[in-house]
Structure formats: C-alpha cells, structure tokens
Amino acid sequence: MKTIASMGIHYLQGLNAANVPKELIEKGQNRVIEASLTLIRERAKLKGELLRALGSVVASSSLLGVPLGHNSSFLQGPAFAPPRIREAIWCGSTNSSTEGGHELNDPRVLTDVGDVPVQELRDCGVDDDRLMSIISESVKLVMDEPPLRPLVLGGDHSISFPVVRAVSEKLGGPVDVLHLDAHPDIYHCFEGNKYSHASSFARIMEGGFARRLLQVGIRSITKEGREQGKRFGVEQYEMRTFSKDRDFLENLQLGEGVKGVYISVDVDCLDPAFAPGVSHIEPGGLSFRDVLNIIQNLKGDVVAADVVEFNPQRDTVDGMTAMVAAKLDPLENFDCNDPRYNPLLRSAAAKTPSNHHCTPACKLRVSNFTSFMP
Ligand SMILES: NC(=[NH2+])NCCC[C@H](N)C(=O)O
Ligand SMILES: [Mn+2]
Ligand SMILES: [Mn+2]
C-alpha cells in the first residue's frame, strides 16, 4: 500500500539521486528530529515540575503516543490509534473516576506529553534505525522527569523494542516484562524485517533488556515461536492451559532484584468478542476482566507500560475497542502509589485512573492541568 509517508521517502530519495548534497538532507532531518524531541521534552518538563512542586506523588502515568503502523505484517491501522484512545480516555459518556476510586482528571494521576511525530519524520526520509532511536529518546525524556512514568500508546507491537530498551538503559539494568498477547512476537526476523511487530521480543531478549519475560494469552504460536521462547528462557503461558494457570497469573509478584516491571499489552490478547478492533483476530482469548485481574493484582514496581495493536479501522462504529484500550491502561489499573503494591511506599495517598467512551460528538478535552497551576 502506498502511504503518504512512503511517497515522501521516495520523493526525498529522488532528490538524492538528482545530486542534492547528502549533508543538506541530513542537516534538515536533524533539525526536524530536534524539533520533534523538543516539544516532548518541554511538555514532560513542565508537567514534571508541576508534580514535584505539588509533592507526594511517587508515580504518575504520562501518555506518549507512537503512531507507527508500518512494521505490521498485516494491516497498518494501529498508526491511527493514539488519538482514538485519548478520545476514549476523555469521553464524557461516563465519568473519570477509576475502579480504584481515583480521578483521571488530575495531573497527579495522568498527564500527556503528546505523540512522537512518526509520519512527519518518515515524510522527511528518516529511516527505521533512527526512528527507533527517536522513540527510545522520547521515552527517556519522560523518565527524566519523575514522577512521570511513560504509558506508551501504540502503534503496532514493534514499538515495544525501542521503549523497553530505553527503560532498561535509563534505569541501568534489565526489568521483568509481563507481555499479554495472542502471539509471542519473538521471530528472529519476520518477512525480512528485523523491526517487525512479530520480532520485537527477540530484539528485547537479545539486548538483555529483560530478565524475566512472561507471555500470557498465547494461542497463535509456531514452532519457531516455541524454539525462540526456549532459547531465551521465556515463560510462555498458553490459553489452552489458562484455567490451570489462572491462580498463579492473577497473583504475580515481579521485579524483585531488577529495576522494576514493564507491562506490554497487545490488545489482541483479549478474545475478539471483547476487543474486535485488532488486526489479528484470534479466537479463544482472555476476557477483559481476566486482564484486569492479572494487572490489578500484580505486585511490583511498574516503571512503564504500553498498549499496542489497537486498530481503529477494524473497530465497531461506537469505538468499543478504543474504550477497551483506554480502560486497559496498565499504569492506570496498577496503582503504583498504593503502599500495598509498591514496596517503596508505605504512607502515601493512593492515586490511579481508568476511563470512558466516546461518540463522534465527544468534546476534545485535556486533563485539568490549569486548575493545579498557582
Ligand atoms: N504483534 C502482533 N500482533 N503480531 C502478530 C504476528 C502475526 C504473525 N503472522 C505470526 O505468525 O506471529
Ligand atoms: Mn498479538
Ligand atoms: Mn503482539
């Protein structure tokens, strides 16, 4: 499929061939990259400064969108997901109180630093090696501003590699990864693409960014998927044995002795009955409540998370899967500020989120940031 971004790349390659100096293009690309990072850096800084001034918050989710779909082996719709998930997060069809009783409409619970401008960068001819570095750099910019913790909205699953790499590099060691997915995404290389969404966990394991990798919800796995799993010591929990594994998976304790826990939620971990808006329909999956039980009961210090593979082009007209993605937010559901779960904390007031649905007429809203300004 010819996308606007790929046309842009061909256009720039054409210019190259026509003897435009290479440095001219590279300098221009570097300026665009710097400008892209500046907006994320400054938004993260402002919000980090505000939360530190308010005090007493140890962890707060900060949305970072990565609208990247071209590393999918099938459909590219996940590139359109982040604005649809935000729309659902802020939709007034219900309210912004979470299951845990916290208010999303409070920057101490949830902030937003915007999107990595993936299409704009590709339009300037930025290749995937650099794009992956820009995604890693963006995640680090959020982590530079405690108490912000990145909650990354994909995008296809290829983005988990640069995100987990950044988290591990920033914290100075591996993390434990809880990966919810119908697929193990651990092919050495898929259809010639080392950055494929079906290979991200091979890159993560090779890089030494994860100590333990637990894959939950698996029901579409090939011989290579199992072999690669063995090779990297992955703990693969398949749906066919979920009723037996449920008790263990709903009482996980992770991250001890490493830098923390990372949660990656591929929306296709859910049964398509709960989440039809995905590219790869695989029957026999988890229920929405199964996923919440696993996340809400997890004990560990969740340092960052992603929600990937939501495909709005396959969603129901009323955006059912957008709402599922919004409510699945693992940092919102996992209460880092709850002293029961976070050993770092024994006395702070708990804060967390969850959220709601949208009609096309839904108002565009942002968090209640200004009411917290002096
Ligand atoms: N991130 C994903 N949704 N990956 C799906 C990969 C599908 C691929 N056809 C496989 O055999 O595994
Ligand atoms: Mn999947
Ligand atoms: Mn996946």
UniProtKB/TrEMBL annotation:
GO molecular function, one example? arginase activity
Q: Name one GO biological process term.
A: putrescine biosynthetic process from arginine, via agmatine
Q: Which UniProt keywords apply?
A: Arginine metabolism, Hydrolase, Manganese, Metal-binding
Cofactor(s) required for function per UniProt: Mn(2+)
Looking up Gene3D superfamilies in the UniProt record yields: Ureohydrolase domain
Answer yes or no on keyword DNA damage: no
| Major enzyme class | hydrolase
Q: Give the EC number(s) under which this enzyme is classified.
A: 3.5.3.1
Please give the family membership noted in the entry: Belongs to the arginase family. Agmatinase subfamily.
Keyword Metal-binding set for record = yes
Judging by the UniProt lineage, the source's domain of life is: Eukaryota
Where does the chain cross the membrane? none
Under catalytic activity, the entry for this protein gives: L-arginine + H2O = urea + L-ornithine
**Species for this entry:** Dorcoceras hygrometricum
Q: What is its pathway?
A: Nitrogen metabolism; urea cycle; L-ornithine and urea from L-arginine: step 1/1
- Please report the name of this protein according to its UniProt entry: arginase
